[in-house]
Design a protein that fits this description.
The complex is a heterodimer. Chain A is mainly α. Chain A is about 70% helix and about 0% strand. Chain B is elongated and about 50 Å long. The model of chain B has no long low-confidence stretch (mean pLDDT about 95). The chains are: A mainly alpha, B mainly alpha. At the A-B interface, helix 1, helix 4, helix 8, helix 9 and helix 10 of A face helix 1, helix 3, helix 4 and helix 5 of B.
């Protein structure tokens, strides 16, 4: 259920900001951005700080690889909004068919072996967190994923385990493919810090 | 030459946890903590919070309007309802963070 206050913005400044960004971008501001503005000191600010660091900060993973991870966490959580949003960002650097191949079956997709190994770890972490064992971490490290890289992947996995849950609980409106593409440009340009 | 500083994920996770579960809000921190724990597979909490927190943790795409509106009616506030959803989502996320970092630490500490 979408909360009306998130839809319109809490406070005069946020309402103005939502209207302005929607007007300038020529599309309805996606709910993910509306939530980032809402009750910001409570949630948007600390979540945005970690998300910006994990998705855009220094890492052995490229931005596109991290966006693909976010997309896959969303797939495993059945969050259509986040699959669309982060798949669209990844498709800015990769060919769209390659992104779709990852979403369909990352094990046979045209991506690096370390990324496949990190995704295999994230799949267990997302779907069966209490089944995670040292052997899962060992498998990723043996495939060439460094400790720092696996830590960064775990941070992405954690963040999108959070984001997908509130996106679905709050019934985020689904943008069109064209709107996802425009929103992807904004995410690449502006990042996640709210 | 500048060296890029890696993010301190542990500190960022802890800052998020403390703000959402211990900081000021429209709901009691105890209720947010119980909702987070419930979403991470912990014990049942009071109705109607229990149902929303459990469902958010297990499969948020199956959260119903009735589960959200139940909490909205009980709290009388959209911000308070948002706090319960945020706390539950965070609880499910932090369960994964802690499990994953625990197994990674096991492997890398053993080989250090």
């Amino acid at each position: 259920m979408r909360l009306p206050e998130i839809e319109r913005g809490d406070g005069f400044v946020n309402r103005l900001l939502i209207s302005f960004i929607s007007m300038v971008s020529g599309m309805r501001l996606p709910d993910a951005a509306r939530v980032a503005f809402y009750h910001k000191d409570f949630f948007g600010a600390p979540l945005g700080a970690w998300t910006q660091a994990a998705m855009r900060g220094p890492s052995p993973w490229s931005v596109t690889e991290r966006e693909l991870m976010a997309c896959m966490i969303a797939k495993w959580n059945a969050c259509a909004f986040c699959v669309g949003a982060h798949g669209a960002v990844a498709a800015k650097e990769m060919q769209r068919p390659a992104v779709d191949a990852v979403i369909s079956d990352f094990r046979t997709a045209p991506i690096s072996e370390p990324l496949k190994s990190a995704l295999a770890f994230l799949e267990v972490m997302t779907l069966h967190p209490t089944d995670l064992k040292a052997e899962h971490a060992r498998a990723a490290l043996s495939a060439g994923v460094s400790r720092e890289a696996l830590t960064d992947a775990i941070a992405v996995g954690t963040l999108f385990s959070i984001v997908t849950r509130y996106a679905d609980a709050l019934d985020f409106a689904m943008p069109t493919p064209g709107e996802f593409e425009r929103a992807a440009n904004m995410l690449l340009k502006r990042g996640y810090a709210s | 030459m500048k060296t890029a500083i890696r993010p301190d994920h542990r500190a960022l996770a802890e800052a998020l946890r403390r703000r959402v579960l211990e900081g000021p809000g429209e709901t009691r921190p105890g209720l947010r903590q119980a909702s987070a724990a419930r979403a991470a597979g912990g014990p049942a909490t009071a109705a109607p919070y229990d149902d929303l927190a459990r469902q958010t943790g297990e499969a948020a795409h199956r959260v119903t309007d009735a589960q959200v509106s139940g909490v909205l009616t009980a709290t009388g506030s959209e911000k308070a309802t948002f706090e319960i959803i945020a706390a539950a989502a965070l609880g499910a996320g932090l369960l994964r963070w802690e499990q994953a970092m625990k197994v990674l630490d096991e492997v890398t500490d053993a080989s250090a």
